[in-house]
Amino acid sequence: MLKRSFESSGRTTEIHPPVSSPASTKDRILGAAEQLFAQRGFDGASLRQLTTAAGVNLAAVNYHFGSKEKLVEEVFRRRLDALNARRMEALARLGDEHPPTLEEVLDAYIRPALELSHDNHGSLFMRVLARAFAEHDDTLRQFLSENYGHVLRQFTAEFARLLPQLSKQELYWRIDLVTGALTHAMSGFGIIQRKSDVSEQSHREQTVQHLIRFAAAGLSHP
Amino acid sequence: MLKRSFESSGRTTEIHPPVSSPASTKDRILGAAEQLFAQRGFDGASLRQLTTAAGVNLAAVNYHFGSKEKLVEEVFRRRLDALNARRMEALARLGDEHPPTLEEVLDAYIRPALELSHDNHGSLFMRVLARAFAEHDDTLRQFLSENYGHVLRQFTAEFARLLPQLSKQELYWRIDLVTGALTHAMSGFGIIQRKSDVSEQSHREQTVQHLIRFAAAGLSHP
DNA sequence: GTCTATAAAGTGATAGAC
DNA sequence: GTCTATCACTTTATAGAC
Fold first, then answer.
1. Confidence label for A5 from pLDDT (cuts 50, 70 and 90)
2. Is some CB atom of chain B closer than 8 A to the CB atom of A177?
3. What residue in A sits closest to B213 (Cα-Cα)?
4. Among the CATH numbers 3.30.479.10, 2.60.40.10, 1.10.10.60, 1.10.1240.10, which is that of A7-66?
5. Which of A76, A46, A43 is nearest to A58 (CA)?
């Protein structure tokens, strides 16, 4: 699935909907799509299931998004625009005082994703993202690379600076392995039980530290 | 997809087909299914595409396997029976002389999978396996757990013995992260370019060492 | 912007001839 | 064991009324 596409994608000028208004039809569709794509996959979730879950008419998907394929892209765009902007901000903020450490750079990459996982059902989105990785779909990969490739390149450059002893090939290998580990872990994150005597915030903080230490060990081992 | 099932699954007594006979209809279907499931997913690949690719009649799938769902299970069984048997043998062989090291245990787990990736189109199967992970499908997870869970438990016990300083929870976390990294890496393994001046065997040996060192660092960091 | 109705094609599965 | 033909349904997408 997902063949080509790319046009204005029907987005209106209003990106953030008014705070306390009832969700618009578009947003209801996007929410239901995220949930059903996470649970059943892009092919497994039909427009009928999706519009029923959203409480909107079947034809609304084509009216608002043009096609199922464009809807898929919009599901990614809605989360990744904000997520990657926050990663870039966090990275930029690091350089202000002193050259950042490996752990700080990893924090800038990982923490925004984990915060998303706890906000508004974002852990569902991490499962959608994990599916996209497993898909190996060229068109989807190209979409992600064109729109968000600069983020990965920026972080890779930081890692290269911090790990000068590694060859380019070696570094790419390790980043790929770390990416796999993080995607896998975060897509299962909603499932992991949090003990009731631990606050949500401290649970997340523990998880961030876990992932950072694991990633740092995997990147920098001799 | 994949709702329940489990019966004799139609397997005949002959597990390994005669060496140099032309592939049977069943094997042709399994081969085409593996390829198309890897490329398009379990829902994305239709029985019509699949039987056309295999050069067999549409009705042959239901005749030989009973349903699409049972065919999916057989695709897993065909590879995992052999793969996990080799892992268990490798692990058993380690204990013969001396208590094994962490790297040796990881070798017993990783090497059979990488050998599969180079044999008969096995890298396609690793992509199918990566999809199964991303699916989060309860029935599929249960099938894998019931049939191959003992392998993971055995290796986990070895890791626990070798890393006594880690709590159970901590150990499970790290094993989960390592699993994500390995699955991700191996499912992309067929894609990675091998330089023409390196023999296939030494390339694989390099890769095994890469993965082992990464996994060891991720499991045992302080 | 939302609805119904429907087109056109694809889906898994099966009956029954050979 | 393999084939054709077909059933009963679902799929995405769209035309046209409101």
1. very low
2. yes
3. A221
4. 1.10.10.60
5. A46
